[in-house]
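Fold these two proteins, one after the other.
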Amino acid sequence: MKRDIKTVAIIGGGPSGCSLATLLKRKGYTVGVFHLEKRPEIIVGESLVPAIIPYLRKLGVEDEVKTYSTYKPGASVWVNKDEEATSPFSFGGGGLPPYAYNVPRVKFDKTILNWR
């Protein structure tokens, strides 16, 4: 007798693991996410890139993420102590949004984990 088992265990409750869990759950899988409740605090936020925005939309979390994040219309790097180079994301083209977010990682992880 053949059984169609649709149960998946995911090790790691970060953004990738939780996103995968959400997408599998929407397809009818039973999903267990195994993760540590406490992770080391990161002092600086995480800089997302425009390619992540469509995934946030697909998961249905962009509106929540934007409530606690810093809007980023581009990226800057320091070439040396006196010179900064900046490039707007709108220069990238390719149909991606012309923005991203700098997110506090603890809040971002919690949003992705709890949104399912």
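Now the second one:
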Amino acid sequence: MEALDQLGKKLDTLLKKYTALETENKRLKQTLAAQTKSVDSLTKKLASLEQGMVSVRIGSATENEEEKDNMRRQLDSVITEIDKILHTLND
């Protein structure tokens, strides 16, 4: 009888530990999900900032009007060539 009482106490202890571990596991999963969401958000923000940096670098690289005009002409010619290629592909 005493052995059954000890076994019952050990079982109760194990069940309490199991419940505590389940609770901790649930909490850790929630924390992980929140941190993953935060990392995703920060990654998107970083990508946006990097894109802004590229724009700033391009803008600062072309400080004088002559350089800007040259870049515009080059872009216009590239766009014109792309339009011609697209037109020939459509035919």
